[in-house]
Design brief:
The chain is α+β, with helices and mostly antiparallel strands. The chain has 16 helices and 5 strands. The chain has a domain of 91 residues: TATA-Binding Protein (2-Layer Sandwich), CATH 3.30.310. Strands 1-5-4-3-2 form a 5-stranded antiparallel β-sheet. A hairpin with a 2-residue loop joins β3 and β4. The longest helix is centred in the middle third of the chain and has 15 residues. It is globular, with a radius of gyration of 19 Å. The relative contact order is 0.13.
């Protein structure tokens, strides 16, 4: 399989793992892997077909990238945006000392932009109203059973995420085996039927892009924001409806928990870069206090 390559010098210091962290669904993610040689491997669907991208940052800051598969050219063309070059924090002002300190401690934080809606949509839907453990297990199993092996000399087990056609082919018992309940599978199949149209959201960007995603039954504000954060690095797409985020923001900025309405109020001065605040707080280690009952882990395969 032909290999294409490219070298890139970015005008800013790069933290590859930090920039790409939102794309990785756990240490066992079959579609994104960091190896012991300092390389990062990404397998993806593109408008041109599946592709594999591997990149490494040299000591002088130069990014060396190689790619294989029908989507190789697309992945290399999108490399700068993937590494945060399209991110622009112009006009961002820290209205809280905690945010200012978090920003100072994370000078390399940049928002990734894959330019690909579908690959961000599937895991986002899987994460609806379930624990992280459940969602990541379903993601791994769907990728293993319905995703293609990554093109080129990729590490063993690296898989391209299931395509829209593959998702449409999943049978009821296979959904059940993967631990995906009826509500989430219905949303995924509905999205798969219009997947090519949904890719336009990455070009529309902002609220218009998120509104296009929400036209799919089962995709609400939370899911659209999770997709937007990854597909076009949306700096204002806050995950309203999240189990953890309002408390993270509330305890960090006010010392108390918040609901979505309260979070919207406290983040309002940061528009149109409200999600950037959340990223800074998370990068600084702010978390939701760990007390009270945990969200129960369910196994739909046993139901």
């Amino acid at each position: 399989m032909p290999e294409v390559s490219r070298s890139l010098t970015l005008p800013f210091p790069l933290d590859v793992r930090g920039v790409l962290a939102p794309l990785r669904r756990g240490r066992g993610d079959p579609c994104l892997r960091h190896d012991e040689g300092g390389r990062t491997w990404v397998a993806a669907n593109t408008p041109d077909g599946p592709g594999t991208l591997v990149l490494r940052v040299r000591g002088d800051g130069t990014v060396e990238a190689r790619a294989w598969g029908d989507g190789a050219g697309f992945l290399l063309d999108g490399l700068p945006a993937l590494l945060g070059a399209a991110d622009d924090d112009t006009g961002f002002v820290a209205h809280h000392d905690v945010v200012a300190e978090a920003r100072r401690r994370s000078p390399l934080l940049r928002l990734t932009s894959t330019g690909r809606v579908w690959d961000a949509l599937v895991p986002a839907v899987l994460e609806q109203k379930v624990t992280t453990h459940e969602a990541r297990r379903s993601w791994r199993e769907l990728c293993r059973w319905f995703g293609e092996p990554a093109p080129g000399p990729a590490p063993a087990g690296l898989r391209v995420p299931p395509s829209a056609a593959a998702i449409r082919s999943v049978t009821e018992w296979q959904w059940h085996r993967a631990g995906v309940d009826l509500r989430r599978r219905t949303t995924l199949v509905a999205a798969a039927r219009v997947a090519s149209r949904l890719e336009r959201a990455a070009a529309l960007r902002g609220e218009r892009g998120r509104a296009l995603l929400r036209a799919v039954p089962g995709i609400g504000v939370w899911t659209a924001a999770e997709i937007a954060q990854r597909a076009w690095g949306d700096p204002d797409a806050v995950s309203f409806g999240d189990f953890h985020v309002p408390s993270i923001v509330g305890y960090a900025l006010l010392g108390r928990p918040l609901d979505d309405e309260g979070m919207a109020e406290v983040l309002a001065p940061y528009a149109p870069q409200r999600q950037r605040v959340v990223r800074y707080l998370e990068a600084a280690g702010h978390t939701r206090p760990r007390f009270g009952p945990r969200y129960p882990v369910r196994d739909y395969r046993a139901m």
